[in-house]
Amino acid sequence: MLISNPFAELSAFIPPILMQTYVVIMIILVAGGTLYDTIHKRSATYFFNNWRNANKVGTQQVGGGDMVSLAIQAAGEGLISGEFCNARRRVAHLLTMYGFLAYVITTAIMVFWYPTPVTPTPAILPQLWYLGALMVCIGGYWFWFFIRVDVAAEGNSPFRIVRADLFILSLLASVTLGLVWAYLQTMGSSWSGVFLGLYLIATTVLFGSVPWSKFSHMFFKPAAAFQKQVAEANGSRRNLPRPADKPANFGSARRQPRHY
Q1: 28-37, 38-47, 116-125: which has the minimum mean pLDDT?
Q2: Tell me, what CATH number does 13's domain have?
Q3: Confidence band (pLDDT; 50, 70, 90) for 198?
Q4: How many Å apart are CA 152 and CA 158, to the nearest integer?
Q5: Is the pLDDT of residue 218 over 60?
Q6: Rounded Cα gap, residues 84 and 90, in angstroms
Q7: Band of the pLDDT at 35, cuts 50, 70, 90?
Q8: Alpha carbons 207 and 167: distance in angstroms, whole number
Q9: CA distances (Å), origin 219, targets 33, 190, 248
Q10: Quick check: is 202 in a domain?
């Protein structure tokens, strides 16, 4: 199972061109949804206005070399999810992020380069596909059931779901159903067709709901992190006062904060 390309096996029932067309449509949905989200929320306008204002009120000049250094630093923090102070949340985020990247990249490679059994798939690709999917499940379910903000403490039901949850729930549904479908297909189960349909529905919701979910934040965060680095370097600090030392006993004596 772990060395079998599930999409190559699927080519016995669905032509590879249909699978490739579906992947292209999903890419278009992500690009179009992100562009729509940027225009609708005026994210680009907000970013450039903040950049302009920061340069006006900044007390120090940031040169080109400093800009490159700050960009590298922002990229490094993004790669290790440095914005999270909570170690548990950082690990869950890293598992989900890198698992999703491995899952998506290997899916595209197997669908476009190794779509049929005629072209043998290198064993490393399906292994990375399964590994990436499992990383998403571990990080995503860990976040959803144990790390996400305590809605009960906010006076809400723990079963309450809002629009902000659309991304993580559709991601978990897509990856989980994909794993179940791949397993059933390898076992030759008649249920594999049912779970394939559910897998496609969940995946379409994941990539088609970009304007309404938090999917596009992965594209905005690097720019926001870089802007924050520049604001700190030029002294503007986004019009915020210098940070004070946090209290030694943050939270309560009975229960320390777990989410923030």
Answers
A1: 38-47
A2: 1.20.950
A3: very high
A4: 6
A5: yes
A6: 6
A7: confident
A8: 9
A9: 12, 39, 35
A10: yes
DSSP string over the chain: -TTS-HHHHHTTTS-HHHHHHHHHHHHHHHHHHHHHHHHHHTHHHHHHHHHHHHHHH-SS---HHHHHHHHHHHHHHHHTTTT--SHHHHHHHHHHHHHHHHHHHHHHHHHHHS-STTSPPPTHHHHHHHHHHHHHHHHHHHIIIIIS--TTTTTS-TT---GGGHHHHHHHHHHHHHHHHHHHHHHT-TTHHHHHHHHHHHHHHHHH-GGGSSTTHHHHHHHHHHHHHHHHHTT-GGGPPPPPPPPSS-S-SS---S--
CA distances in angstroms from 130 to 53, 77, 257, listed in the order given: 46, 27, 34
Number of folded domains that form the chain: 1
Supply 108's token pair: 């595209």
Average pLDDT, the chain: 82
In a domain, 1, yes or no: no
Q: Domain range for residue 199?
A: 6-55+63-151+159-233
Note whether residue 258 is domain-resident.
no
Token readout for 241 is 């006062």
Pick 249 or 79 by higher pLDDT. Answer: 79
- Give a yes or no: residue 257 inside a domain: no
The average pLDDT across 76-85 equals: 67
